[in-house]
Amino acid sequence: MSLLISLIMALMAMAFFTLLERKYLGYSQLRKGPNKVMFLGLPQPMADAMKLFLKEQNFPVSSNKLYFVCGPMLSLVLALFLWSLFPSNNPGWWFKYSVLFFLCVSSVNVYSVLLSGWSSNSKYALLGSLRGVAQTISYEISMALILLIGLVVKMSMDMSKISLVSYSMILFMLFPVVVMWFVTNLAETNRTPFDFAEGESELVSGFNIEYGSSLFALIFMAEYCNILFMSLVTSLVFMTCLLKFLSIGMIVFTMLFSSLFIWVRATYPRMRYDLLMSLTWMMFLPLSIGVFTMIKLIFILF
Questions:
Q1: What is the span of the domain harbouring residue 144?
Q2: Is 159 part of any domain?
Q3: What stretches pass through the bilayer (predicted)?
Q4: Measured between alpha carbons, how far is 259 from 267 in angstroms, rounded to an integer?
């Protein structure tokens, strides 16, 4: 029952996070954003869901229809798998290696992007999926190393145990590492300025160009569920000490980090692809290895 409630609450949070993003972007561009649907536009996510799921689903003539449908479904299922790890105060079940499971599921998510772009049988979709796969694989390595730095300090791989027992504050101890983690999260979730899998200006919406109505809604839902879960992991691993003093601290810090995704989208333009590859392989990977080695030496010596 607790798992079912977590999944329903995650989907509700995802729906209203889209409204928050549209409001945030609207005010950043000196306009109101959605405000016509009933009171302050609050039911707007429900109206968007009805519009998407009630539209007719079209399939490209030359597409592989089975895999064309399986790609978006796989991405949403993997996103919901991650939310099964939500560390509540009274968890229904304990997962000893939940962080390892998180890394495995996030790496498998590459296949949903590749499957969606390949099954569309469109050159633009295939190019977008290949760029997305190359980008995600490049950042998976540094993301895992940065996360391992936090886990070495926490001395646990169980999210529930970290949230209930850990008292260390990595945000202030290793602030550059947290900045690298946030930038890696932007690339991992295909968000601006690293949204190369969905480059509208050069790839005409990228790997999801052939998707519409309900299948596009599944891709959309999976992306925003992943954003919220990455923000949850950030607050859990790097802000655990402050969570002890706030009854709703995890929710507050998760919303704080997720709002940073919107702020970056409203502020920065898209980065060049070669600069992104240089950033991950030439900067983040050596830095993360160096910091991880330094932390291990400190633990061994002291």
A1: 46-301
A2: yes
A3: 66-86, 93-113, 133-152, 164-183, 215-238, 245-266, 278-301
A4: 12
Per the domain annotation, does 39 fall within a domain? no
Residue 210 lies in a domain: yes
Q: What band does 227 get if pLDDT is binned at 50, 70 and 90?
A: very high
Assigned domain for 85 exists = yes
Single pTM value for the model = 0.90
Give the tens place of pLDDT for each residue, 147-160: 988 888 888 888 87
pLDDT per position as a tens digit, 250-287: 788 888 899 999 999 888 888 887 888 888 888 888 99
